[in-house]
Amino acid sequence: MKTKRNYGVHLFFIVMVAGIIYPMLFIGGNSFKSLKEAYHTVLHLIPKDFTISNFTYLFENLPLLQITWNTFFIATITTVVKLTIAFFAAYSFTYYRIKGQKIMYLVVIGTLFIPFTVSMIPNYLLVSKVNLIDTSWGVILPQFADAAGVFILTQTMRGIPKSLFEVAKLDNIGEKDTLFKIVFPLTRHAVTSTGIWFFITSWNEFVWPVLILKSTERYTLPLAMQTYISSEGGTNFTVAMAISLITMLIPLLLYSAFQRYIIGTFVSAGIK
Q1: pLDDT tens-digit series, residues 77-89
Q2: What burial class does residue 225 get, using C-beta atoms within 10 Å of its C-beta: 0-12 exposed, 13-18 middle, 19+ buried?
Q3: Per-residue DSSP letter, 47
Q4: Residue 242 CA, distance from chain mean position
Q5: Same-domain check for residues 74 and 202
Q6: Helix and strand totals (H; E) in the chain
Q7: pTM of this prediction?
Q8: Which of 32, 55, 186, 234 lies 20 to 30 Å from 223 when distance is taken between CA atoms?
Q9: What integer pLDDT is reported at residue 85 of this predicted model?
Q10: For residue 99, how far is the Cα from the chain centroid?
């Protein structure tokens, strides 16, 4: 009976994994098909007549290298600043004792429950006021702080033994050395995984950039992909699949390389 139950659990997870992987194989297969073949064999994963014409079309009709650079620039700057702020905020909440600290921490974490639509209009008006509409910085600036990163790094730092800091004080080790020679090395896995998560989230962001960016040369990859699947830009299915493949490639490679850090960090944060 137990064996049958185990088979059922394994079968369930196999079906789940297949359901997750199939869309990626679907994108990859159809991006190398002609439009005519895709409409007739849309569910077939392997192209009969392999072609790179969809990618050629993208490079001929879009400033694709510029768009990819825009996406990378926005994701990188956003990640670096978010991670820096989250790290120092987590350190302050963990190791400093000031009046009202717990209330401040709860207020910061409470922002996780505020829907994006609530802050979207005030942020848009602010960006418009400082003349950053249709610029990469208009996309970046409102994303400089993230409560989820503060929470994850705070939970990680709370797991560091207090005795290490007592020894550091006895040895007259300064605040800077304590931060970068004790705390950072012990939390680098959490910092790395949180940074990867920030990068992937920013890379895939669509709603906020579509409000700010107006010119094609300022677009990010998710916005460029939208031009081939919207009613305004017409529907070019295989080209949309090609740009989808480019869009998901870098985040997928990053996640594949660092998945054990990402999973381990979220598990440990949840346990603590």
Answers
A1: 999 999 999 999 9
A2: buried
A3: -
A4: 21
A5: yes
A6: 14, 0
A7: 0.83
A8: 32
A9: 93
A10: 34
Question: 30 with 141, same domain?
Answer: no
For residues 163 and 103, the answer to whether their CB atoms sit within 8 Å is no
C-alpha closest to that of 265 among 137, 184, 136, 149:
149
Say which residue the tokens 């989808």 belong to: 244
Full residue range of the structural domain in which residue 38 is found: 1-50
Q: Which of 146, 110, 159 is CA-nearest to residue 265?
A: 159
- The torsion angles phi and psi of 205, rounded to 5 degrees, stand at -60, 135
> For residue 261, how many C-alpha atoms fall within 13 Å in the half-sphere facing its CB?
16
Question: Rounded to whole angstroms, how far apart are CA atoms 148 and 85?
Answer: 12
- 52, 239 contact by CB (below 8 A): no
One domain for residues 154 and 266? yes
The whole-number pLDDT of residue 233 equals: 46
Tell whether 78 and 189 lie within a shared domain.
Answer: yes
Q: How many domains does the chain have?
A: 2
